[in-house]
User: Fold this.
Amino acid sequence: MEKLTTYFSHVKEEIQKVIFPTKTQVRQAFFAVFLVVTVISIFLALVDLIMSSIVTAVVG
Assistant:
């Protein structure tokens, strides 16, 4: 039982050291991820379109 109490004591100490992001930081990270995912998705869609056009032209 003492190990469990010590464990939770250490957990409490460590959680107080954590620096949580602010709402502004979360919002900025969300928009950055959204932008990157959108750009990569559009790029991959264009590459797929070009490749399928090439294959269709070659195969007939």
User: Anything to note?
Assistant: Residues 6 and 12 are 10 Å apart (CA to CA). The chain has a mean pLDDT of 96. Helices lie at 2-15, 23-59.
